[in-house]
Amino acid sequence: MTLSTRCASTHLPILDLFRDLLAVVLLWSLILAFFWRIALAGRVLAGGDVFTYFYPYWAEATRAIRAGRLPLWNPSLFLGAPFLANSQAGVLYPLNWLLWLLLPAHQSVHLTIVLHLGLAALNAYLWGRASLRLGRVGAWAVGAIFVLGGYLGAQVEHVNQLQGLAWLPLALLLYDKVSIGNRQIANRIAAFVGLAVVIGLVLLAGHTQTAFISLVGLAVYGLGPVLWESLRRLGRTSWVRSDGDSQLSQGWLFARRVAILAGVAGLGVALAAVQLIPTWELSRLSVRAGGLPFNERVSFSLSPFYLAHAFLPGFTAPIPPEHIEHVAYIGLAGLALVAVAIRQSPIANRSSPVSILHSSFSIFLLLTMGLFFSLGLYNPFYLLLARFVPGFAHFRVPARWLALTVTSLAALAGWGGDALYHRRVRMDRRGLLFFAVVLVLLAGWAVVGVRVGEGGRVEGTTIAGWAAGTVLTLGLLLATTRAPQLATMGLLTLLVVELFAASFTLPHSRATAPQAFTSLRPAIAHLLVSHSVGEGLGEGSNPPARFISLSDITFDPGDLPEMEIIYGPQLSAAALYDAVIAAKHKEVLSPNLPLAFAVPAVDGYDGGVLPLARYVTLQRLLLAEDKVSMDGRLRENLTTIPAGRWLNLFSVRHVITDKLHDAWLDDVFYDLQLGAQLERGETAAVAHVPHFEATALGIVSYLRGAAALPDGTPVGVVEVGLGKGFTRTFELRAGQHTAEGAYSSDVAHVQAPVGGHFWPGQPEGNDYVARLRWQEPAAPVTVVVRATLPEGELVVRGVSLIDERTGSFQALALSDQGHFRLAHSGDVKVYENLDVLERAFLVHRWVEADDDETMLALMQDSAFDPAAEVVLGKSEGVMAPGDAGSGPIQDRSPQAVEFARVIRYAPERVEIEVATQVPAYLVLSDAWYPGWEATVDGEPAPVYRADLLFRAVAVRAGNHRVIFAFRPVSLRVGGGISLAGLAGLIVVAALALSKARRNAIMDSVAVENLREGKR
Of 475, 509, 812, 924, which sits 20 to 30 A from 70 (CA to CA)? Predict the structure, then answer.
């Protein structure tokens, strides 16, 4: 070998590597161009799960990691819930850690999206080059369609789903390397180790359904061809020839591949055990423990009526939220390349290498299976799986199986592009005509299906785009007969243009100003100031009180004109709209935004292993059973403020409501949110009367069940305390100040002056307005309403102080469900609950319950007072120490002042000082969960489940320090398994490296001996 020859052989691989790198860099550049709004412009995604789910979770993770704390517990949602064990938070996914350490939450979310799209492009390109044996053009087409197509573009808001899918092509590649790749055992072991690591990363990414789909797809990819070949062998020539498996029977080949899959899956699971074991523990207590309700299991199935539209790009109207899981377009040019690949399928070519035969059959199998399962509800076989098979019974959105279909379509398009570019196929008129007919039928079914299935329509611009794309695609296909390489590059260019145009219909194209997430709204600012929370939960401070929101977001923000002036010139109409919606979500603190600002909420939102099943049961204290939401949300289902005893038990100090059902009457504002429903003898009082000099009291009310009362019947008394012991008393009479709300001709009294119709959902209801005047202006200090009617109810909707000299007014908060004051009024109202219990409190009466339903029934009893008694779960083995050191606490009342004071509150540790004169139970209104341990004065104490969801510890008479600490055993067990798995992988990798070095040494010795022999 001459010197020049050796130099050429050395430079050639480097040149090839450089060309591959250029192809990948081009893909990365296109990713930046497609996603420039979040990648380069700093905008935020203000819609979907990324805004209300991932930004908040990543904000909490960022706070914890920067504080040097592993976030095990989440005190801000669901009355407390596991954080790390919720796999969707991705706490243990290694690629998240540096982002959390260096960047704000929203920026780290954007960066991980772009990085994983780039990773997906690289992995798909490598899969095309190494497994599918494609040239650079074909492999580039695989990467472009996989990453820039509609499926991944529509899933960028599901961050952990995108993270998991990014590894799928690499998993397929590494499996090929292990099973039918290089004969060198060291290389196969290295691929085995790599595949185990990839599976571990997919599991750690946290989207369990994506991991399930990926593992099932990997198994089908590996085992499908062998099973099919076993069926074909009867009387036929086997595919398997002399390339490494020729001497193996099909049975042995199948067993070996099962062993490979079991081995890599087992090691991958072991690596991820530190996440999987805590998640498994959580799932046992989760709302999904027994599987989802059947209708949830098949929700978001891909309808056959929408099937064609799913695979065709749209160019105008945004993809509606109900179809965001049904996006699988790859462009008309992409479909053309798939058609070419199907026509030139390697399966039909017996001379193809076995690896290509394996891959081609596997690709077709994945494509079919993904499409078959994505039909979900419309597939009888899937209905059986969803009813009886674990995995299918625990996940919703069957359409996510389209991930396998899209991956397969990308591979087929790569094959088609490679065949055209390298002149392995020639397009004739018959083939072009067939493709044109298929596209027309597909487009026709898309138009008809949407109209028939949903009563909708496909926009004319989109249909025109399909027509233009079809003509251009057919022209370029025809041109491949004379200039195949140039025409193929034209097809790929058309593909990119199509996909870029279609990307404007996806949610990421509506990315809006960063202030949509980062800025504070007045309601948030008020809660932060009142709680003194600042950036997070203060170490060594009392816990911030919780809030509950029941506000709608149909109001217009008060600063809407300013938002339009500031952002209108910079944003599209859709992006500006999303910014406005985001402002309203922040104003009412929709789940899970409280977590982003570290303001504890009663509810939350999760579509995975949270909320806890007992949290969902607890919602029945606040909602009718048919209104209870499995994902934990209360805001959308609550129509009235819950009873005060539940607000107190849940440590709710603030209630957020909107003003949609308040009233302006005679230029006076009346707050109609609270109110009172009073029978004879019952009273309601305004808990806080701000200083306001007035001359009259306006009252909005109506009667219910009092139609038989004649005119002038006294129905109530209003007492206005004017200070210095002076009180004005006013009598309310039927037909004069108020009247039957559902008024009709058979009502005995006349109709009083109607102020308006403000009953939510019942516009026929009547609200009556009256003014009660006094002579001299005065600043009232008390307002009390007492019902005196002989039958029915007096319903007081709202009261306002009025100064008729100036026309000014002051709305008051009157309620029979507790004591409230209006703490903030802006776009929304924030009430302060003046009766709220502290997070930790003492009770002296208790009762046991055998199960959750019994506990709930005892709590629903009208006599149950959570401030004085507690319901304990009998299954927890209640044995509380008395004065003598044993036996249960008796029903005894304290004889002196007692207290329970939180002196340090952190997510995983709560310290409380307690003083009591008699034995008591210390109740902490944070969720009970395995792993919470307690000590009383340094001695271990059992943590009982109290009032269905909360924690309680028994304390004897005296002064004590009680410490709750979260130390989940599941994390320690999982960590031990993961360390063992990691050690095993290191050993296997070391053996592979040692084997590779020995082989290299032996090869060099053999070459040297050969040279010596020639000499």
Answer: 924
